[in-house]
Amino acid sequence: MNEREISNKIEAGGGFPILQYWAEKTLSPQGVKLWQTLNHKSACLACAWGTGGQKGGFVNEAGESLQRCLKSVEAVTSELMPGIKTDFFQTYHLAQLQSLTSLECDRLGRFSYPVLLKAGESHYQRISWEEVYRLAEQAFHQPSETIASYSSGRSSNEAAYLLQLFFRALGSNNLADCSDLCHAASTVGLKQVFGSGTSMVSLESLKQADCVVLIGSNAPANHPRLMNELIQIRDRGGKIIIINPQIEVGLVKFSSPAFPIKSLLRGGSDISTLYLQPIPGSDTVLFVGLQKSLIEQNLVRWDYLKSHTENWQSVIDYARQTPWENITKTCGLSREEIEATAALFGNLERVVFAWAMGVTQQENGVDNIISIANTALMTGNAGKIGAGTMPIRGHSNVQGFGSMGVTVRLRQEIAEALAQLLGKPLNITGGYDTRALIEAAERGKINTLFCLGGNLYGANPDLNQAKKALAQIDTIFYVATKPNLGHFQGLARQNTVILPVFARFENPHPTTTESGNNFVRFNERGSSHLQGSHVDIISEVELLTNIAVKVLGTNPIDWSRLHDTAYIRQLIAKTIPGYQKIGQLDQTQTEFTISGRIFTEPHFPTSTRKAQMSVTLLPTLKAPQKQDFNQPENAPGIALILGTGRSYGQHNTVVYQMGDKYRGMPHRHCLLINAEDAKKASFQEHQRVTVQGDAGKLENIEIIFGPIREGLQRIDQSLCPLCLCGSFHSLAGKNVS
Ligand code: SF4
């Protein structure tokens, strides 16, 4: 695809619109409070890049300032909205609330007091905290296997630790988490290969890379400050290889406010050295192809493989034996493209392989990760500065939740330490992850659900199923700062309770968070703009401790002591591997990198200290046909693979803006399609069509032409009838328009 085709909407990502947004918000009535909040010493609310903390809200993990992006302004602005007034829920009945879009829900303002919706009632009613604890006492006095939680990465490590400790004490392992939907494949794959499921690259290390291979990520929209690193790598002669079925303008050229001269004079900085557009779902195939090419071009680091890896021979044999024709046909890229890519990174000394959900949210997501890791190992790019594997994590503390033990795959050493702390062995029954939780709820197996943040309803692949499943649960507690679709659509059978809590920068006590690069941030106490007699908000730590005291009292520990977050940090230091330094954090105020995760030597925490390579078989991909939908070949329309994506004005399931100017989409009922595909079906741009998938149908969807691979269409994730994962799918979406 040539540059003109690439940039048919906007010339570069970032740039003037970002400055305009900052200016608008600065000059708004909230301007002063916005800047005070951005400067507050706490981690950014939005992505997990780790901006903000003890050294100030604009400082990154390397100590560089001016590192705050538009995404963070959107998130803070939203949290600074006024509180919902006392008469709001008396005025608006459920049917009205259920007609709201995600953006309209967010704009209602901050939850300011607890509310309850009882079965058969049309309005949420304000209730007292005493009533909340009474409901909680009843709801948690249920068989442990019927109690479950779901969480997002919004809360602190301390709240996460408390949540899982309370659940483990109750005997429940049903700790579903939003990471089950995004980077579970990364955690499982990396753990299998390296014995550690997180990034092995620190920000400091990334700064020394010669090349970044960025796969299935739209960093300009979702991790904007990563773009500064990519710009700097290009500036010193490094290479950036992008692998993505769609050309994202910000991955071609990005205009960062951190480099104003370049932005003004040159319209931005070049990002991609090479841009590959494989068929969605074929990442493993592409990486096997890259491995084959590395072998053929004699670019494999044999000494490294022999010294630091296991099972390398079978991986090499498989790549060697796989015919080129199978590779090129399945991934849709030519042998020359694959060879050029292998030559580019294979000849460089320090390469980082980074990815997001375009790779993980596939049927063979774990294989994708292992094939990337195999490729890194074949080129000696694991266990040294400037190189390694780097999953790019989404929500700001999503990784911290996993570290704190909010997972159904609890590490053995944590389980043993928690058992010692609680003075009793943990229940070893497996818990429900997010998908299993919905299925269990659908079967009537869940009585009580406690949602610490997140939007379990809206993040689900099948909204109809999610709604039905949640309606089988007796009591659901939603802990939140602002309304989302789930609060009005994901209703319980008996009691749906919404519990308002402080945002990170408002908590009356210090907390911590963990970035995607394994850096622990210390968040200072703050205060809330929400004031007045109708406001009745508490912190998550206070809420969880009060519930634990009410339900368990001093059994098996004195839960009231956990009101003190410094004490929780002491417990974390004793029970969570790599977190020892958190025990002194209140004294030292020194943020730290979690030990044992950043590998600067090729020695890994596996049983043999070597990386465990394994063969990743080529998946069989089948392009959708009209017959799959019982349509004759001559029926109007076209069958394409469906991908879903997050818009530029969106963070997770929260929508901040309706349109997406980077993709030329004026609203969210749009379908991005290659102009050549449209021609085959005689579609015009802006024509309205019906989109039919395996699980549903959407009417009146506007066609927008875009630089997307032929044979693929892309829809906004909030509309997808198949999945809300925010990324491309392989065979999930067979559609005929
Ligand atoms: S890049 Fe991520 S962590 Fe940094 S300011 Fe932007 S949203 Fe926040």
Question: Could you give a quick summary of the protein structure above?
Answer:
The protein has 737 residues and is α/β, with parallel strands linked by helices. The chain is 35% helix and 15% strand. It starts with a helix and ends with a strand.
Present as ligands are: iron/sulfur cluster
β-strand number: 28
Overall shape: it is: globular
Radius of gyration: 25 Å
Estimate the strand proportion: 15-25%
Our measurement of the CA-to-CA distance between the termini, rounded to an integer number of angstroms, reads 25 Å
Helical stretch tally: 31
Estimated structural class? alpha/beta
What does the model show?
- The N terminus and C terminus are likely disordered.
- The protein is built from 31 helices and 28 strands.
- With about 725 residues, it is α/β, with parallel strands linked by helices.
- The strands form seven sheets. It has a seven-stranded mixed β-sheet with strand order 3-2-16-15-14-4-5, with helices on both faces. A six-stranded mixed β-sheet has the order 25-26-24-27-21-28. The chain has a five-stranded parallel β-sheet with strand order 10-7-6-12-13, with helices on both faces.
- Helices cover about 35% and strands about 15% of the residues.
- The longest helix has 14 residues.
- The two termini are about 25 Å apart.
- It binds iron/sulfur cluster.
- Iron/sulfur cluster binds next to helix 4.
Secondary-structure map:
Blueprint: H1 3-6, E1 13-14, H2 16-27, H3 31-39, H4 70-79, H5 88-91, H6 94-98, H7 102-106, E2 115-118, E3 125-126, H8 129-140, E4 147-151, H9 157-170, E5 175-177, H10 184-194, H11 203-206, E6 211-215, H12 219-222, H13 226-235, E7 239-243, H14 249-252, E8 253-255, H15 260-266, E9 269-270, E10 274-276, H16 283-296, H17 302-308, E11 309-310, H18 312-321, H19 324-331, H20 335-346, E12 351-355, H21 357-360, H22 365-378, E13 388-391, H23 398-403, H24 412-422, H25 434-442, E14 448-452, H26 463-470, E15 475-480, H27 485-489, E16 495-500, E17 511-514, E18 519-523, H28 540-552, H29 565-575, H30 585-588, E19 592-593, E20 611-612, E21 639-645, E22 650-651, E23 654-655, E24 670-673, H31 675-680, E25 688-692, E26 697-705, E27 712-716, E28 734-736
Parallel strand pairs: 1-8, 4-5, 4-14, 6-7, 6-12, 7-10, 11-20, 12-13, 14-15, 15-16, 21-27, 24-26
Antiparallel strand pairs: 2-3, 2-16, 8-9, 17-18, 18-19, 21-28, 22-23, 24-27, 25-26
Helix pairs in contact: 8-28, 9-28, 10-22, 16-18, 16-19, 16-20, 16-22, 25-26
